[in-house]
Every structure is written in structure tokens, then in C-alpha cells.
Specification:
This protein has 253 residues and is an alpha/beta fold. It is built from twelve helices and eight strands. α3 links the parallel β3 and β4.
């Protein structure tokens, strides 16, 4: 079975002390996890070493960075490289989150470069794609997401692509309280998988975890995750509340 993943995206929230308390509360819940299930804490850069030490002795728990730079090294003050992340034992990194695209102007080409560097340093990318409300209302969301996938991922070999986790984010459902229906989530996830299959074959496409990222809560996670092509979630606000995120973990297939 494909890896089923509950990924917590803390974004720019919590102090060090609050983050430590949240990690402790989630880990102390001892939610039973099967071999194909994974929990990933996507935390701000200052908390990566803390989070990694917290999960060091826990099965099925890992840590992700929220971003990395698209160059290997150099005079890029304030940026963090894939090599730096590797050097502190980070196994995952989110790239292309809609907020990075919107507020920092990240392009599909820059994301392709980030993907290359992460794979070079043995870090699994969590690649975000998705459409804004205007694109959804124009019914052009499939073509929009296809372009994101094509321009950032389709230069990869099949072996490389299988190391990428994809997170579909309907941008109009992030932090708005709106949620794509479970049927809408499954429809887009199925489309993404079929688009990958056209390029790389069904076997490769069926091995790739596709997460849903858009106002997932403890109360709706089970319904959303029930979709045949939905392999868990990239969770924002609800991941900052231990009780809510524990419920989301428990909802994994």
C-alpha cells in the first residue's frame, strides 16, 4: 500500500517552548500506526533540530523543513540549502507551497532546481501544487496543475519521481475555512495520478503518495482520506492543536 501521511505544517507559528510542548503532547498520545503510515512535522528552521531529537526514537515519525533555496551554496544571506538540511539529518522538505509561490514569487523552474538539489542530498521533496479560486471558477484547474507538475517534475527519471511526495492544495481552501468536498479532492487527486501515469506509467504513478492540503480538520479528515487517491494530508491550522492533529493521524487509511 502507498505510504499514508499526516504532515503538520506549522508555517510561521509557535515559540520554541510552544513547539516543544505541542510535539510532546502529540507523541504522548501514542496513536497506533501501521507500517505504511507516516507522520511528518514540518517546522520552522529554528526548531528542526529540536523536532528531530523529539522523534529520534519514535517509529513512523519524521521532520521536514518548510523550504530550501534553489542554489547549492553561496552568497545568499538568510537562505538555507539542501546540504545544510542533510547535515542535521532532515529527511523531508516542502517545496512550492502556495504561500511561497504567491508571496515570494517562486517559479516552477526554481522549484525544479530545488527538487534536484533535495534529491541529490537524499531528502524527499513534498511538492505542492494547486489552483486559486479564479482558476477553479474558470474550470481550468486541471490544466493549471498539469503545468505545475510538468515544469517542475517531468524532467525527473521514474526512479527519482517515486521519491517525491505530492501535495495538492486548492488555494481557495487554505486558511479560509472553505474545504473542497471529499469528492472534489478525490477528483483532482485521481486526475494528478492519471497525468503522472501518462508520462511515467501506471506502476510509477500508483507508488506516489498524493496528499490533500486545504483546511483538513479532525472532523473531516476521515471523509477526505477515504478517497482512493487521497493518501493523507498536509495540515495547517489544525496541526497546531494536539487534539486535532492526533485525530487527523488516527484518520489515516
Amino acid at each position: 500500500m502507498r505510504k499514508q501521511i499526516a504532515a503538520a505544517n506549522w508555517k510561521m507559528n509557535l515559540t520554541y517552548q510552544q513547539g516543544e510542548k505541542l510535539l510532546d503532547e502529540i507523541l504522548q498520545a501514542k496513536t497506533p500506526l501501521q507500517s505504511h503510515q507516516q507522520v511528518i512535522f514540518t517546522v520552522p528552521f529554528p526548531y528542526l533540530i529540536l523536532a528531530n531529537s523529539e522523534v529520534a526514537n519514535e517509529s513512523h515519525y519524521a521532520v521536514a523543513a518548510q523550504n530550501c533555496y534553489h542554489k547549492k551554496s553561496g552568497a545568499y544571506t538568510g537562505e538555507v540549502s539542501a546540504e545544510m538540511l542533510q547535515s542535521i539529518g532532515i529527511k523531508y522538505c516542502v517545496v512550492g507551497h502556495s504561500e511561497r509561490r504567491e508571496y515570494f514569487g517562486e517559479t516552477n523552474q526554481q522549484l525544479a532546481e530545488k527538487i534536484n538539489l533535495l534529491l541529490q542530498y537524499g531528502i524527499q521533496p513534498i511538492f505542492c501544487c494547486g489552483e486559486a479560486l479564479a482558476i477553479r471558477e474558470a474550470a481550468t484547474q486541471n490544466a493549471w496543475v498539469e503545468t505545475q507538475l510538468k515544469e517542475s517534475l517531468f524532467h525527473l527519471s521514474a526512479e527519482e519521481l517515486e521519491k517525491v511526495i505530492i501535495a495538492y492544495e486548492p488555494i481557495w481552501a487554505i486558511g479560509t475555512g472553505k474545504t473542497a468536498t471529499a469528492a472534489q479532492a478525490q477528483e483532482m487527486h485521481e486526475h494528478i495520478r492519471s497525468f503522472l501515469a501518462k508520462q511515467y506509467g501506471a506502476n510509477v504513478a500508483n507508488n506516489i503518495s498524493i496528499l490533500y492540503g486545504g483546511s483538513v480538520k479532525g472532523s473531516n479528515a476521515a471523509e477526505i482520506f477515504a478517497g482512493a487517491d487521497v493518501d493523507g494530508g498536509l495540515v495547517g491550522g489544525a496541526s497546531l492543536v494536539a487534539e486535532d492533529f492526533v485525530a487527523i493521524i488516527a484518520a489515516l487509511k
